[in-house]
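Repro:
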Amino acid sequence: MELRYVVETVQSLPVTRVPRLPSFIRGITNLRGNIIPVVRLDLFFDGGGTENERGEYKCLIVLRCEGHLFSILADDVLCIGDMGKNLLDDGIDHANSSGFEKYVRAELTDGDGVVTVLDGERLFHGMTRESAGLP
Protein backbone atom coordinates (compact mmCIF):
# COMPACT_ATOMS: atom_id res chain seq x y z
CA MET A 1 0.00 0.00 0.00
CA GLU A 2 1.33 3.44 -0.79
CA LEU A 3 2.17 5.27 2.43
CA ARG A 4 0.09 8.30 1.46
CA TYR A 5 -3.05 6.24 2.25
CA VAL A 6 -1.81 4.70 5.51
CA VAL A 7 -2.88 6.49 8.68
CA GLU A 8 -1.54 3.97 11.19
CA THR A 9 -1.30 0.35 12.15
CA VAL A 10 -2.92 -0.85 15.36
CA GLN A 11 -3.17 -4.11 17.23
CA SER A 12 -6.35 -5.97 16.34
CA LEU A 13 -9.40 -4.38 17.93
CA PRO A 14 -12.77 -6.00 18.67
CA VAL A 15 -14.85 -6.24 15.50
CA THR A 16 -18.65 -6.00 15.60
CA ARG A 17 -20.39 -7.85 12.81
CA VAL A 18 -23.13 -6.02 10.94
CA PRO A 19 -25.85 -8.00 9.11
CA ARG A 20 -26.23 -7.77 5.33
CA LEU A 21 -22.80 -6.36 4.60
CA PRO A 22 -20.79 -7.88 1.76
CA SER A 23 -18.79 -10.92 2.90
CA PHE A 24 -15.46 -9.10 2.54
CA ILE A 25 -16.46 -6.57 5.21
CA ARG A 26 -15.79 -8.42 8.44
CA GLY A 27 -17.61 -5.74 10.46
CA ILE A 28 -16.87 -2.41 12.10
CA THR A 29 -14.56 -1.32 14.87
CA ASN A 30 -14.27 1.71 17.13
CA LEU A 31 -10.93 3.45 16.76
CA ARG A 32 -10.82 6.28 19.30
CA GLY A 33 -14.41 7.26 18.58
CA ASN A 34 -14.28 6.70 14.82
CA ILE A 35 -16.43 3.81 13.59
CA ILE A 36 -14.61 2.28 10.63
CA PRO A 37 -15.22 -0.77 8.43
CA VAL A 38 -12.86 -3.73 8.75
CA VAL A 39 -12.09 -5.43 5.43
CA ARG A 40 -10.68 -8.87 4.65
CA LEU A 41 -8.78 -8.43 1.40
CA ASP A 42 -8.60 -12.17 0.77
CA LEU A 43 -12.40 -12.29 0.51
CA PHE A 44 -12.56 -9.07 -1.51
CA PHE A 45 -10.05 -10.30 -4.09
CA ASP A 46 -11.76 -13.69 -4.33
CA GLY A 47 -14.95 -11.97 -5.47
CA GLY A 48 -16.67 -12.26 -2.13
CA GLY A 49 -15.76 -15.88 -1.58
CA THR A 50 -16.93 -17.79 1.42
CA GLU A 51 -16.41 -16.98 5.05
CA ASN A 52 -13.56 -19.35 5.82
CA GLU A 53 -11.84 -18.20 8.98
CA ARG A 54 -8.16 -18.98 8.96
CA GLY A 55 -6.94 -17.82 12.31
CA GLU A 56 -6.42 -14.57 14.11
CA TYR A 57 -5.12 -11.43 12.52
CA LYS A 58 -2.49 -9.50 14.42
CA CYS A 59 -3.21 -5.96 13.31
CA LEU A 60 -5.33 -3.51 11.37
CA ILE A 61 -3.90 -1.17 8.78
CA VAL A 62 -5.97 2.00 8.94
CA LEU A 63 -6.27 3.84 5.62
CA ARG A 64 -7.73 7.16 4.54
CA CYS A 65 -9.00 7.87 1.04
CA GLU A 66 -10.99 10.95 0.07
CA GLY A 67 -11.55 11.71 3.75
CA HIS A 68 -12.97 8.26 4.56
CA LEU A 69 -11.33 5.89 7.02
CA PHE A 70 -11.34 2.13 6.54
CA SER A 71 -9.12 -0.67 7.73
CA ILE A 72 -7.78 -3.92 6.39
CA LEU A 73 -6.90 -6.97 8.45
CA ALA A 74 -3.26 -8.01 8.29
CA ASP A 75 -1.35 -11.04 9.47
CA ASP A 76 1.63 -8.83 10.09
CA VAL A 77 3.37 -5.66 8.94
CA LEU A 78 6.87 -6.65 7.92
CA CYS A 79 8.24 -3.24 7.07
CA ILE A 80 7.25 0.34 6.46
CA GLY A 81 9.41 2.46 4.25
CA ASP A 82 9.76 4.76 1.32
CA MET A 83 10.67 2.68 -1.70
CA GLY A 84 11.32 5.75 -3.82
CA LYS A 85 9.17 6.70 -6.77
CA ASN A 86 11.84 5.57 -9.21
CA LEU A 87 11.61 1.99 -7.93
CA LEU A 88 7.91 1.67 -8.74
CA ASP A 89 7.21 -0.21 -11.96
CA ASP A 90 3.84 1.11 -13.07
CA GLY A 91 3.80 -0.90 -16.28
CA ILE A 92 0.48 -2.49 -15.36
CA ASP A 93 -2.32 -2.29 -17.94
CA HIS A 94 -5.21 -1.40 -15.62
CA ALA A 95 -7.72 -1.10 -18.46
CA ASN A 96 -7.30 -4.77 -19.36
CA SER A 97 -6.67 -6.20 -15.91
CA SER A 98 -9.14 -8.03 -13.73
CA GLY A 99 -9.43 -9.37 -10.21
CA PHE A 100 -6.49 -8.63 -7.96
CA GLU A 101 -4.40 -7.08 -10.76
CA LYS A 102 -6.66 -4.06 -11.22
CA TYR A 103 -5.85 -2.95 -7.65
CA VAL A 104 -2.08 -3.16 -8.06
CA ARG A 105 -0.33 0.22 -8.21
CA ALA A 106 3.07 -1.21 -9.00
CA GLU A 107 5.50 -4.00 -8.41
CA LEU A 108 9.08 -3.64 -7.34
CA THR A 109 11.94 -5.90 -6.53
CA ASP A 110 14.05 -5.78 -3.45
CA GLY A 111 16.59 -8.15 -1.96
CA ASP A 112 13.85 -10.50 -0.73
CA GLY A 113 11.85 -10.80 -3.96
CA VAL A 114 8.91 -8.99 -5.52
CA VAL A 115 6.82 -6.52 -3.50
CA THR A 116 3.32 -5.72 -4.74
CA VAL A 117 2.09 -2.21 -3.92
CA LEU A 118 -1.70 -1.82 -3.80
CA ASP A 119 -3.40 1.35 -5.01
CA GLY A 120 -5.41 2.74 -2.09
CA GLU A 121 -7.71 4.84 -4.25
CA ARG A 122 -8.60 2.00 -6.65
CA LEU A 123 -9.10 -0.30 -3.67
CA PHE A 124 -11.41 2.19 -1.92
CA HIS A 125 -13.50 2.77 -5.05
CA GLY A 126 -13.63 -0.96 -5.84
CA MET A 127 -14.89 -1.79 -2.36
CA THR A 128 -17.42 1.05 -2.54
CA ARG A 129 -18.76 -0.19 -5.91
CA GLU A 130 -18.86 -3.80 -4.68
CA SER A 131 -20.72 -2.79 -1.50
CA ALA A 132 -23.29 -0.93 -3.58
CA GLY A 133 -23.70 -3.89 -5.96
CA LEU A 134 -22.24 -1.98 -8.91
CA PRO A 135 -19.90 -3.48 -11.55
